[in-house]
Amino acid sequence: MKKMMIAALSTGLLVSASFGAQAAPAKAATCVGCHGADGNSVVPNFPKLAGQHASYLEKQLKDFRDGFRKDATMQPFAKGLTDAEIKELADFYAAQAPK
Predict the structure, then answer these.
(1) N or C: which end of the chain has fewer CB within 10 A?
(2) Is 20 inside any structural domain?
(3) Is 82 a member of any domain?
């Protein structure tokens, strides 16, 4: 009986954890090389995105895309993003825990 209760509790925790985790948007695959899979870059030249305010990230990506903010690396990545994709990326990285 005790083993069944432990197994049920463990399963419940795993299910809860999987529903709480936010899947990375498809466009995030292009961000991983510089900013890391969860937005916690380990390279000092590339900022950490994890835990930043979504509105800040959204504005920065739109500014790169629209040419208001200049960066030879970021502009090509941001250029093809729609407003919806930018919002999705910003929300994803804002939800990540900074390390």
Answers:
(1) N
(2) no
(3) yes
Domain that holds residue 80: 25-95
- Report how far apart, in Å, the C-alpha atoms of 92 and of each of 34, 36, 63, 71, 88 are: 16, 13, 18, 22, 6
In a domain, 32, yes or no: yes
Tokens matching residue 83 = 């407003």
pLDDT digits (tens, 9 = 90+) for 3-44: 443 333 343 333 333 334 679 999 999 999 999 999 999 999
Integer Cα distance of 69 and 63 in angstroms: 5
Coil vs helix vs strand at 2: helix
Which CATH number belongs to the domain containing residue 83 in this structure? 1.10.760.10
> Residue written as tokens 């890391």?
36
pLDDT at 12: 39
- Distance, in Å, from the CA atom of 2 to the CA atom of 55, rounded to the nearest integer, reads 48
Q: Which residues contact 65 (CB under 8 A, 6 or more apart)?
A: 75, 78, 79, 81, 86
